[in-house]
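thread from #wetlab-drylab

HS: before we spend reagent money on co-crystallization trials with zinc ion, can we at least see a predicted complex? here's what I'd submit
DV: go for it
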Amino acid sequence: MRLVDFHCDTILRLVNGSATGDLMKNDGHLDLERLKQIGALAQFFAVFIDWEDETVKPDPFGYAINAISYFKGQVETYQDQIGIAHNVEEILQLEKENRIAGILTIEEGAILEGKMERLERLHQEGIRLITLTWNYENSLGYPNAKDPILMGKGLKPFGKKVVERMNELGMIVDVSHLSDAGFWDVVEISKKPFIASHSNARAIKDVTRNLADPMIRAIADQGGVIGLNFCPFFLNEENHETVDSLVQHLIHMIDQGGVEVAAIGTDFDGIGGKMDLAHVGEMERLVHGLRKAGVSSSSIDKIFCENGLRVIRDTMR
Ligand SMILES: [Zn+2]
């Protein structure tokens, strides 16, 4: 399958030493061997920065640059299997060469620390998507939270400027983890389609990390996508990732925003718990589940690949 997956935390596991193995083959949810097996097209790899982590705290930007260098080193080592892509043309060229396209992202806009020159630097380093917040307040805005006061806080002035500059630079704006008010600011400010790289439907599992129906429709209206998150805690009350639960969220997104809004953002290597579809090598099971639920082949192609490529074409440079 030509899979475009908008989010994984594989770099984190490899860099912090919790994984056995490397990018080619490891004991986690995702590696090049399994991506090749399923015929994946493009994989977004997040450099995740946990602002409160003791190893990150002394020099978060340095940590990010190191993680980027580590990934580039792995790509170099396995250059017959993968290349780094910065736009849709490079993704399609890599496909012709039978190589996977790796796209670098930053999960946690805190890394900018209010400095626009860092955004320019990250673009130069090859970063093509930034998740504006993780679960803490940062110089851009506020995270999703149960606290309605926090959830009602929008983007800060610097966050608004960052969205505008990301549009100009050709970087994808990612609203996963963002507060609801911040989300609506992005709707207002972004001149390009934006995405929720790894979020599900709040109507099905009522957690703040998921998207309310009007938010799903707003992303669709601007031509963006939502990457289906495989995290058990964002799927159902049983906190059990089953193929049926994944299908249910996708069908709800499609009901609300049309088939053009649905995409994949597994969050593999950043999640745990009860998972029936346990790693990227089993992705075909989701295809079967969608077929069983009556989703057409052309819609399945859109969810797994075409919608993602459209957003990449419209945004990444
Ligand atoms: Zn995340």
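DV: The domain at 4-315 is CATH 3.20.20.140 (TIM Barrel).
HS: ok that's useful, forwarding to the group
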